[in-house]
Amino acid sequence: MNISLTNIDSVNAVLQVSIAKADYQEKYDRALKTYRKKVNMPGFRQGTAPVGLMKKMYGRFILAEEIESIVHESLCDYIVENQLNILGGPLPNEEKQQSFNFATESDYDFYFDIALAPEIKLSLTGKDEIAYYKINVDEELVNAQVEYYRSIYGSYGKTEEGAIATDLVKGVISELEDGRVKEDGIVVESGCVMPSYMKDADERDKFAGVKAGDMITFNPGKAYGGNETEIAAMLHIEKYEVEAIAPEFRFEITEVTRHKNAELGQELFDKVFGMDKVKDADEFRAGIREIMEERYIPDSDYKFLLDAKELLEKKVGELQFPDAFLKRWLLVSDEEKSAGSIEASYPKIIAGLKFHLIKKQIANDYDIRIEDDDLKIIAMQAAKAVFARYDMASLPDETVKDYVDGVLKNKEIVRNLRERVMENKIIDLLKTKLGVEEKSVSLDDFRKFFENEEDKQEET
Known about the structure:
Blueprint: E1 2-7, E2 12-19, H1 21-38, H2 51-81, E3 86-92, E4 108-116, E5 129-135, H3 139-152, E6 155-158, E7 168-177, E8 180-181, E9 187-193, H4 201-205, E10 215-218, H5 220-223, H6 228-235, E11 249-260, H7 266-273, H8 281-316, H9 323-333, H10 339-365, H11 372-389, H12 397-407, H13 411-433, E12 435-441, H14 443-459
Parallel strand pairs: 5-12
Antiparallel strand pairs: 1-2, 2-4, 3-4, 6-11, 7-8, 7-9, 7-11, 10-11
Helix pairs in contact: 1-2, 3-8, 9-10, 11-12, 11-13
């Protein structure tokens, strides 16, 4: 077997794979014998059909399969051994490649187009100045988070005052007919509504100021804007039954409960941070500030990477890409896409590919590697962030670890985690190699960066 590479230009090449009969004969004969043992051919016991007849009937299909396997394996080995930095995958050359029916055992030549990644030369220096925007967790943000915790860990209690929109109003809900309770109609003994969830202001206002013992008439369909899911949940019926309900219902109020924020004390501290981790309000606020500062680090890093992307792309300059090959490869690799859709999205594809190659070059230049422990650490961080969103930040590490062990069995998740680890390592490297100036900004000002970015994208 012989494989040769012919460069067309700096980013396009043709690989010729020459397969001699001796290269596939042994594998082909073995495959033919294996198939002979399995095939049922009329007039012969299983496994006893003549080899000549087998070749005549099935030989070309088996030969094609074996040669295809050899060619594929040889191509992969050649690319790896010669460290070819290719884009996409090899495609049959449309001009040189002949068609074969593999009816005879002979020598074969295969030609494949390949795309070579453009060469990137990049030097990182402290003279390349870039800002790192750290979000300032001020007192206002801390106060808002304190109130958030007080709210979610608060409780409902009875009130004798007239109901407000955010109160929970409980009572008996009865379907009406001609102004009276409908015989065999819907009756919910333990009805419960929160007026603030109602879409219609007039219906919502009917509950304003009600107290235990009051009675009102309201229209559920109007109140919830025809949302069958919400109406069915309130009336304890199935969604398909909503269409047939009467327009008016009576609500006999039995109780009004109002939410009360949790007290700023040890019980709240323990719920947020775990038992006895925080002793007083000052420690509680300091802990919240630390959590929020850590929470905003990925946002700051993301902004830093966007700015670094712009800087690095300018340093690298214009790159030549094998456009015709890439468009052809994109079309072949995704049958759902059309040539028109690929043409329309191609500029964005190339922009993403350019930065991907820059990051890959940085990783190669500075020998950035990903270890198993890196994946476990980032998976733990991601899991804790998810749990924190659902106010479970104080879960024991062992519980989180068990969750992570399960997550790491998913190959797709592991692939995504590897990409995140590599990007994080590149960010950390850039912080040490570039001239970075840390700047403190408010959360509002930080968000404006991305509003401006969206405006730029809309203009383009």
